[in-house]
Amino acid sequence: MSFPKRLFEPAEVPDGAILTRDESKNLIDRVITISKAESIQVNIGGGYSANVRFADNQMSTAGGITDFTVVIQSSFGKKHAVVTVNNIALRRFVNISDLNARGVFDTMHRWWLGSRNRVALDDLAWALGIESSKTDEVHGSRVFELYEAGRLAELRDYNLNDVRVTRKIYERLVEGFGR
Questions:
Q1: Mean of pLDDT over the chain
Q2: HSE (CB half, 13 Å, CA atoms) of 175?
Q3: How far apart are CA 27 and CA 45, in angstroms?
Q4: pTM exceeds 0.70
């Protein structure tokens, strides 16, 4: 019985598929520079996997997958937290690891890890099925105007409702993701 020779030979790894020693060191140095933790541990893992698929006793597809992950453990005294990331948005993930190690629960970071730097409280409330604190009369962009008009009771109620909504969001996120 004969087999295709290429199935038994090591697959050639494309250039750039695996981080070099210098690339790994630069990545670790970036994480260490970003972190404000008392101590930090950074692990990089990954590699290249070749894929071959057969259909009707013939090779139908061949290719490969390159992947790597960065595991960041931040520590403050006896508290520590671990974040695993497989893309290069390191600053955000190092900051999350530092915050988690300090015991900070930041709803913004728990909810949004995309390209924006923030998510509106109203959008987050809507997504979680929580009634918004905003009304037609009072919302964040009108605070100064209402203050100047002396409508302090409305501003107080608006702020109290914001705090209530924030608390409900926190409780929902802790219920879903844990502390």
A1: 75
A2: 7
A3: 12
A4: no
Tell me the two tokens of residue 54: 């057969």
| Residue ranges, CATH 3.30.2290.10, the chain | 1-103
Fold of 1-103: PmbA/TldD fold (3.30.2290)
pLDDT single digits (tens) 92-145:
666 666 666 666 666 666 565 554 556 777 877 888 888 887 777 787 788 888
Task: Determine the number of helices (DSSP H) and then strands (DSSP E) in the chain.
Answer: 6, 3
Q: Which residues pair with 66 in a beta bridge?
A: 48
Tokens of 120: 């509106």
What whole-number distance in Å separates Cα of residue 125 and Cα of residue 112?
Answer: 13
Q: Tokens for 42?
A: 């950074």
